[in-house]
Amino acid sequence: MNKNPLAQAVSLAAISLGFSGGLVAQQASQPTPSDTMVMEEVVTTGTPGGASIRKLDASFSITTLSDDEISKVSPASTADLMKSIPGLWVESSGGVSGANIDVRGFPGGSDAPFVTVSMNGLPVYPAPTLSFLENSSLFRVDETIQRVEGLRGGPNPVYSNGQPGLTTNFILKEGTEETEGRVKYTSSDYDLQRMDALLTGKLSDDVYYMMGGYVSSSPGVRDAGFSAEEGHQFTLHLTAELDNGKAGFYLRDTDDHGTWYLPGASTLPADYTQVGPSNRKVLVPISQADGSGGSETEWQSFDMGEGRGWDGSIGGAYVELDLGDGWSLTDRFALTSGNADTLGFVPNGSPVRLDSLTDLNGDPIASATTVSGSAVSGDTLVQQFGPWVVRKEIEAASNDLSIAKQWDSAKITAGYYASSWEVNEWWSIGNQKYYVLGHDGEQIASSGAAGEIECNAAGMATCGWNYDVEANGNAREDALYLAGEFYVGDFTFDLGVRSANRETNYSVDDGARDGVFTSYKADEDGTAYTAAVDWAFADNMGSFFRINSGFKFADFDNYREFGGSFRAGSDLVIDVDQAEWGYKLQDENYSLFATLFYNETQGMPDCVVGSDVCTRLETEATGVELDGKLYWGDFTLGLNATIQDAEITSGDFEGNQVQRQPEHQLRLTQSYDWTLNNGVDMSLYGAVSRVGERYSDSANITTLPAYTKVDFGTTMTINDLSVQLAVNNLTDEEGATEGDPRDPLAANVRYILPRNIRLSVGYDF
């Protein structure tokens, strides 16, 4: 792959913006509401070539959020925003990146294997999940986002990267005829300092620009005691209206990271984080080849305060052309390049009293000192924590080309999607030593002598286990798709088929690195299809029925985890079959989108991290999604609900509930907007979320209790000045999102973020 992808993007943008003169601009923005409907929403995700259609006409389940709705959510991360999409179980408790996101009924429990994040119609990274990296970690929400569209199931398996689960498409704002802008300052009760800016305007006739970004710093919602969350981002979006279409170029550069929040002892409060100023710098054992066919250990210093983040860029270009006589052509191209690293203290086992440990002679340890010399009594709680270091360098390129022909009664689209991606990485995980339990808790000092913790001595790599990885991989996927729409009276029939080929090369030296690499080569084919009928039986009402069959190819980590199965002949492909029936209602004062869904998956890996326990699951789920709004004068009520029965249907866990997913989840949003006599615009809004009981593991050993979370906010606008106050988790609920994924019986738990308050002051010009 070219090592300077942004140069390619700039070159392609220049070509696109100079492309023939003139296309009637196909606005992807939401049109002005009609006289009969409050929300005449337009969507582009899940359509052949990204063509715009009315949400009411869509024969699939899709949710849209405008920039104003995004602002009212006041998300702490990209994953946090996704809680507004029905059918998702989002664990954004890990910080600014590194979420776990599960889709309705699909197995998961770690990262986000069935979630693709796209920007302007193309995935930010074609593989939805690598170990310690899921798509939402590569994207940051700011003022440059016009809207987001979240498509579950539906035609997803046929288009773009063939994601059978969720595709979340973030669409950038565009330039304006007049120069307009916004500056916004945000602070908080956890000392957040953030400045956002946005500027839009016109460069020349028919050429427009949008640029914006942010600079941010804070100790984190869980106060690390230093500037643990730091970042900045800049986005540029250029568009040109052509005589017969539209062309555009975008570039986004991001450097943003924050503390990796991990499960902690269940006795600790929700604002706990182990990392702090006294322990953030630590020596980590790195295994490497000794030159004689074995392995040796080298100690290197790392800063656990780096946490998780993304330092990279995403660039792209697109052109949409009306070729005349019903023919149209669309091409989208994107490049991603950067580093997505993970560093943090990971617990191993439950906390114990110091005097419950024994020395080399088997005698209890009555007292100790920390590495800085502080005294530690025998009744002090200590716990094993491992400084984990994961370095990932990724690159990706994607292109989606489609050509369509429209007739009065039909439309046919043919497309070619191609993508290639790489990863170069190394890990050092495990590496546990005993630390004083608590924020900024230091490591216990030891020389390994009598009366001391033997494994804490210098030169001892771990008190538990360790596992190192050095790997590189590259993959390429080519897919042809064909889609047809046929209109018969009030009925629309649509069909789609995708034929894909993926070639993967992956080499890994893991365990104790000795310089011996195991290589995997795969060349897999797959076919996906979708079919639907949509019945518009009234101007504001309709229904649809859809089936689809898709798949998920194996990604790099699957070959390492299931190398034996692969060599024995398994293709490691996960097969997914789905059926949906939807009802759609959209009128002047209300809207309701309800979808009954059924899905089956076969072959999902289920692994206990840090052990050799791995199985492949089959699952089955039935449920309903509700997505609605009610407008009553100045009052708006929103509903987002999912009810499901999702269970494992194979193996030792047959009959168990799919891990980390509740049987019900409900989110109610309320907004009251009015204008004072002096012309000041006011808004009060809030949200109440109820998440049902779940299990932390596939064995259903550990129960995660149900919880209710309340958010509240208010805005005041005086001419061009706006003030917003947002309170997240108003009641300071300690909702558990996960137990200990490495040990279900350990007394560790990760809570949702504690109560936090943000205050923003913005000025529009």
TrEMBL record:
<keyword id="KW-1134">Transmembrane beta strand</keyword>
<dbReference type="InterPro" id="IPR012910">
    <property type="entry name" value="Plug_dom"/>
</dbReference>
<dbReference type="Pfam" id="PF00593">
    <property type="entry name" value="TonB_dep_Rec_b-barrel"/>
</dbReference>
<keyword id="KW-0408">Iron</keyword>
<feature type="domain" description="TonB-dependent receptor-like beta-barrel">
    <location>
        <begin position="276"/>
        <end position="730"/>
    </location>
</feature>
<keyword id="KW-0798">TonB box</keyword>
<keyword id="KW-0410">Iron transport</keyword>
<comment type="similarity">
    <text>Belongs to the TonB-dependent receptor family.</text>
</comment>
<keyword id="KW-0732">Signal</keyword>
<keyword id="KW-0675">Receptor</keyword>
<dbReference type="Pfam" id="PF07715">
    <property type="entry name" value="Plug"/>
</dbReference>
<dbReference type="InterPro" id="IPR037066">
    <property type="entry name" value="Plug_dom_sf"/>
</dbReference>
<dbReference type="InterPro" id="IPR039426">
    <property type="entry name" value="TonB-dep_rcpt-like"/>
</dbReference>
<keyword id="KW-0998">Cell outer membrane</keyword>
<feature type="signal peptide">
    <location>
        <begin position="1"/>
        <end position="25"/>
    </location>
</feature>
<keyword id="KW-0406">Ion transport</keyword>
<keyword id="KW-0812">Transmembrane</keyword>
<keyword id="KW-0472">Membrane</keyword>
<dbReference type="InterPro" id="IPR000531">
    <property type="entry name" value="Beta-barrel_TonB"/>
</dbReference>
<dbReference type="InterPro" id="IPR036942">
    <property type="entry name" value="Beta-barrel_TonB_sf"/>
</dbReference>
<keyword id="KW-0813">Transport</keyword>
<protein>
    <submittedName>
        <fullName>TonB-dependent receptor</fullName>
    </submittedName>
</protein>
<feature type="domain" description="TonB-dependent receptor plug">
    <location>
        <begin position="55"/>
        <end position="165"/>
    </location>
</feature>
